[in-house]
Structures are given as structure tokens and as C-alpha cells.
Design brief:
single chain; alpha/beta; Metallo-beta-lactamase, Chain A; six-stranded mixed β-sheet; about 25% helix
């Protein structure tokens, strides 16, 4: 059984996720922790539950999702996985971070690159990598088929979608990929987004004003 825990960090109110199998083998997804108190909260949870953190995964590399990358890599000695098309997105954070008030930002170098359709083994669980660009050029989503749960980053939100007006974004591509990659998942699939509350594929297919059934073109 896969367990999913969420933490909301930084001024962007980004959702950081910690997932693990029943034996405590864990992965950290999109660590948005920047302040000491945020890092302490995450550390305390990992230590209290005696988790064995082995992977660091980024759905994409906008600033609010990568603030804790370097810290987590160093603290737990874990490799960072991103999609190769996110390299320029990740590198650009070092340039603009001070403009958002993150003067102590430390960049991190990826160790491995995620591939579309790749299956990641996390202890006794398997996570599939879905390629859903549009919000950013190399955005991926992590899908756990047995429990029908999806860690969607900034692709699909409850009643909304990720913005596509940032460098590397593509609105038409995002809409197309949501329909081909996410809306083809079972309707009962629960989506854990990068911001805001959880939602389901069924709800978004029926109600999302950008890609749902009620959209008129």
C-alpha cells in the first residue's frame, strides 16, 4: 500500500509530497521547503515515522517546487530525478530567486532524468511517469495504478489548470496532454495537485471550465 502525506510550504502555498510503501521506503516529491521551520517540519515527520528516504523527484522545476532540492539531497544523500527538458527551467531559478525574496536559494544538479512511461520502483510499490508538458516543457506526473492516485504537479487543479504563460509554457499542449494523459485514467483516480485541494478525474472531466465536458469551443 502506498501512503501519501502532503505539506504546504513557502509563500506560493506549494504542496510538497512524501510518499512511502508499507515498509517505510520513501520518496520526496517537489520539496518547496525554504524556511528553517519548514525544513524542521519535514525532517521531524520523516524521523518520527522512521522513513527510509531514497528518492527525490520533481514534477517540474519552477521555483516553488524546487526550493528544498539542494538541502534534501545533502541531508539524506538522495539522487534528484527530473525530466531532461526541465534543465533550463531549473537553472533559471538561480537567476530569478532573489527577485522573489529567496536570497538564500541554493541550486541543485539533477542526477538522473525521468522518461515518459518509465516505472519507478519504490520499495514494494511502482510509480509510472506520465509526460504532461504545457505548464512547463518537461512536466511529468506520477501515477500509482493500484490505488488510482496521481501526483499531478501543476497540470490539473480542482476546477482549474496550470498557467501556461511562463517561459516554456504552451496552453494548447497543456489542454491536449490533460485530455490524452490524465482524462484517460480511471474516473475515480484522485489527483494530488501542486497547489490547493485534492480532486478526481471524474470531477474535472465533468466540471473543469478549461477542459471539462461543459467547455464550449
Amino acid at each position: 500500500m502506498l501512503s501519501i502525506h502532503s505539506f504546504t510550504f513557502n509563500p506560493f502555498q506549494e504542496n510538497t509530497y512524501l510518499i512511502h510503501d508499507e515498509n517505510g521506503v520513501a520518496a520526496l516529491i517537489d520539496p518547496g521547503c525554504h524556511e528553517p521551520g519548514e525544513k524542521a517540519e519535514l525532517t521531524e515527520f520523516i524521523e518520527r515515522h522512521q522513513l527510509d528516504l531514497v528518492l527525490l523527484l520533481n514534477t517540474h522545476c519552477h521555483i516553488d517546487h524546487v526550493l528544498g532540492n539542494a538541502w534534501a539531497k545533502r541531508k539524506w544523500g538522495i539522487p534528484l530525478w527530473i525530466h531532461e527538458k526541465e534543465i533550463p527551467v531549473l537553472k533559471s531559478v538561480e537567476v530569478y530567486a532573489p527577485n522573489y525574496g529567496f536570497h538564500g536559494y541554493e541550486g541543485a544538479t539533477p542526477d538522473h532524468f525521468l522518461q515518459e512511461g518509465q516505472v519507478i520502483t519504490l520499495g514494494e510499490e511502482e510509480i509510472k511517469v506520465l509526460f504532461v508538458p504545457g505548464h512547463s516543457p518537461g512536466h511529468v506526473v506520477f501515477y500509482h495504478e493500484p490505488s488510482k492516485r496521481c501526483l499531478g504537479g501543476d497540470t490539473l487543479f480542482k476546477g482549474s489548470i496550470g498557467r501556461s504563460d511562463l517561459p516554456g509554457g504552451n496552453h494548447a499542449q497543456l489542454l491536449s496532454k490533460i485530455k490524452s494523459e490524465l482524462f484517460t485514467l480511471p474516473e475515480e483516480t484522485v489527483v494530488f495537485p501542486g497547489h490547493g485541494p485534492e480532486t478526481t478525474i471524474q470531477f474535472e472531466k465533468r466540471n473543469n471550465p478549461f477542459v471539462g465536458e461543459k467547455v464550449s469551443y
